[in-house]
């Protein structure tokens, strides 16, 4: 082997070694595990029996006062909590039909366009990756839109994490009205031990608003549904329970019927509670 050949091979082996070391220090994207999307039920609550007249039969359209009071209560809860959730719920639900791609930093990205229920268009970039040390998946949703008045450009609207089994986790929702300040408005803790059982706890964490500290807990157990709402400023609690199949249920609220349990039947007529 002549001197030139030896020198050439030394350079090749040296470059190969450097490449090997670089790969060890910076694992290739191909080694990045794709995380499973958390379930849509990790941030979505089904209140359709109260919010959509289309779900009521002809016999149920003349509802009794107890059901009407529960419906009005749900409307107030929507203003206090779920106003902040409409865009996160709509944009996250659309991710399930998209194919992600692996990008720099070992993060998987679901990139797509989506329209919310109000007809506003959003450009979504959902990033997810597996945190091996913590044994969780981590999530960041950035949204761009011109449909909210002031344009948003790659705004970090919500972040989250989930156990790798996707049976529990949390979300943090940020204030889109103050995109430069990273102000959290709602924190969600969720637990989903099975396909038919789920618990979501929403806490309003936006500072300097009357609802700060209010907590809503939604539970689904088979066909049973319940919402428990704690009003921090008034220091009182209300509860709504209903059967998702029959629509029968009850309301217990401090400002209705002297705080007594108030029931309705499957036709939404007032009835004596058992």
Blueprint (SSEs and pairs):
Blueprint: H1 3-25, H2 48-51, H3 65-80, H4 86-93, E1 101-103, E2 107-115, E3 121-131, E4 136-145, E5 152-163, E6 168-174, E7 184-191, E8 197-204, E9 215-221, E10 224-231, E11 236-243, E12 249-252, E13 262-264, E14 270-271
Antiparallel strand pairs: 1-2, 2-3, 3-4, 4-5, 5-6, 6-7, 7-8, 8-9, 9-10, 10-11, 11-12, 12-13, 13-14
Describe the fold and architecture.
This protein has one domain (67-271). It is 19% helix and 36% strand. It has helices spanning 3-25, 48-51, 65-80, 86-93, and strands spanning 101-103, 107-115, 121-131, 136-145, 152-163, 168-174, 184-191, 197-204, 215-221, 224-231, 236-243, 249-252, 262-264, 270-271. The protein is globular and about 60 Å long. The protein starts with a helix and ends with a strand.
């Amino acid at each position: 082997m002549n001197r030139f050949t030896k020198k050439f091979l030394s350079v090749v082996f040296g470059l190969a070694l450097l490449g090997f070391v670089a790969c060890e220090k910076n694992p290739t994207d191909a080694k990045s595990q794709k995380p499973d999307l958390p379930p849509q039920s990790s941030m979505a609550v089904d209140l359709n029996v109260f919010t959509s007249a289309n779900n009521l039969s002809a016999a149920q359209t003349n509802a009794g006062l107890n059901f009407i009071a529960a419906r009005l209560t749900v409307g107030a809860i929507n203003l206090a909590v779920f106003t902040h959730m409409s865009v996160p719920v709509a944009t996250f639900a659309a991710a399930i039909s998209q194919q992600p791609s692996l990008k720099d930093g070992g993060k998987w990205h679901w990139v797509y366009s989506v329209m919310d229920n109000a007809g506003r268009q959003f450009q979504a970039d959902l990033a997810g990756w597996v945190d091996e040390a913590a044994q969780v998946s981590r999530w960041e949703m950035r949204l761009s839109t011109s449909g909210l008045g002031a344009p948003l450009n790659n705004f970090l609207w919500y972040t989250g994490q989930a156990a790798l089994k996707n049976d529990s986790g949390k979300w943090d929702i940020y204030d889109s009205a103050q995109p430069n300040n990273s102000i959290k408005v709602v924190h969600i803790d969720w637990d989903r031990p099975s396909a038919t059982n789920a618990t979501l706890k929403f806490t309003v964490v936006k500072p300097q608003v009357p609802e700060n500290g209010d907590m809503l807990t939604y539970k689904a157990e088979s066909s049973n549904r319940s919402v428990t709402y704690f009003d921090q400023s008034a220091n009182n609690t209300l509860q709504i329970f209903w059967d998702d199949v029959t629509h029968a249920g009850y309301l217990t609220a401090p400002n209705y019927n002297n705080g007594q349990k108030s029931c309705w039947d499957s036709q939404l007529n007032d009835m004596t509670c058992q």
